[in-house]
């Protein structure tokens, strides 16, 4: 059923008032004066926007609430920052939303002026991070660079592109897309793609200059909504990687339980950031949680591939229990 014009006008006003109040930081009297309406109407519109889901309340864990556990993880693994949220009793999708919001709360305080930022646009947590990120008013990034080519069905790739575009707008940066297969069927096909796509080569070159990297951690399995094959690894290829000792991957670069890269025959098929490029980034930020990611997350911190972590209490306790790699 089409929306009535009066309802549409009301939605526009609710959205406009919410933008001015929550994004621009104007107080209600300023909004009323700007729009030529009463302050009482501004207040009613803000309340209605919350009820309509235009504005979503974010609960931010107070600093220091998990300070002891955060300090233990930081000290044990040499991490720069650890931020722990309570996601107990949440479903996987709810945990993804919680972690994405938490990362947005953390990231908004970072200096981004002149930075080249690598972004894992296909990660669900990273897309939720962008959904909850306010516009930066204290700096402008230079580039938002996709760190992995396209994976998944067209709908997923569209969501990834949209997230990259939105992230770039929020940071006043240039979006640099990597719109080729994330996993090529053969090395020959990969080389042919790169030889004939100057934009892909530009994106891969930009990965040499990362200041901040927002990475994706996987558990060496196919996780919905991604599907095996096509522009992604098959079930058999993931099984082969696990046979070689892989417990997880960072942007599809496989690693063993100690975070040591798996030198297998699948790595050359990936079109995206290398672990060497990732290591050179000053800030390497991961958001990961849930039991299915425990071993992969442990490998990532053991290997030193990340130095900033947003995770849940259960995962942080798992890291402490198992500790750094032993020689």
UniProtKB/TrEMBL annotation:
Domain Sugar-binding, residue spans: 66-320
Any one GO MF annotation of this record: DNA binding
Keywords, alphabetical: DNA-binding, Transcription, Transcription regulation
Give the Pfam families listed for this entry: Sugar-bind
Is Transcription regulation there in the keyword field?
A: yes
Q: Which domain of life is it from?
A: Bacteria
Q: Which family does it belong to?
A: Belongs to the SorC transcriptional regulatory family.
Name of the protein described by the UniProt record: DNA-binding transcriptional regulator LsrR (DeoR family)
**Organism source for this protein?**
Microcella alkalica
The lineage, from the top, is: Bacteria, Bacillati, Actinomycetota, Actinomycetes, Micrococcales
């Amino acid at each position: 059923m089409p929306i009535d014009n009066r309802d549409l006008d009301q939605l526009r006003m609710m959205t406009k008032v919410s933008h001015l109040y929550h994004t621009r930081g104007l107080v209600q009297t300023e909004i009323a004066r700007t729009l030529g309406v009463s302050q009482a109407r501004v207040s009613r519109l803000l309340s209605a926007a919350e009820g309509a889901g235009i504005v979503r309340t974010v609960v931010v864990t107070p600093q220091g609430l998990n300070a002891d556990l955060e300090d233990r993880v930081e000290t044990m693994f040499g991490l720069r920052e650890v931020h722990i949220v309570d996601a107990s009793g949440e479903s996987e999708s709810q945990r993804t939303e919680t972690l994405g919001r938490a990362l947005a709360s953390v990231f908004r305080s970072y200096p981004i002026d002149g930075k080249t930022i690598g972004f894992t646009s296909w990660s669900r947590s990273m897309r939720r991070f962008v959904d909850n990120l306010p516009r930066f008013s204290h700096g402008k990034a230079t580039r938002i660079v996709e760190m992995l080519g396209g994976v998944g069905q067209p709908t997923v790739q569209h969501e990834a592109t949209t997230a990259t575009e939105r992230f770039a707008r929020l940071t006043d940066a240039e979006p640099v897309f990597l719109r080729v297969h994330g996993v090529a069927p053969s090395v020959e096909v990969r080389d042919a793609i790169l030889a004939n796509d100057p934009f892909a080569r530009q994106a891969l070159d930009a990965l040499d200059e990362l200041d901040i990297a927002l990475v994706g951690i996987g558990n060496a399995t196919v996780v919905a909504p991604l599907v095996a094959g096509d522009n992604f690894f098959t079930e058999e290829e993931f099984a082969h990687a696990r046979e070689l000792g892989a417990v997880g991957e960072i942007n599809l670069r496989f690693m063993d339980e100690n975070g040591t890269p798996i030198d297998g025959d699948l790595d050359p098929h990936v079109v995206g950031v290398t672990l060497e490029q990732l290591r050179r980034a000053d800030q390497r930020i991961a958001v990961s949680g849930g039991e299915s990611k425990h071993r992969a997350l442990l490998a990532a911190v053991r290997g030193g591939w990340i130095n900033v972590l947003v995770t849940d209490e259960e995962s942080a306790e798992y890291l402490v229990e198992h500790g750094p790699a032993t020689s």
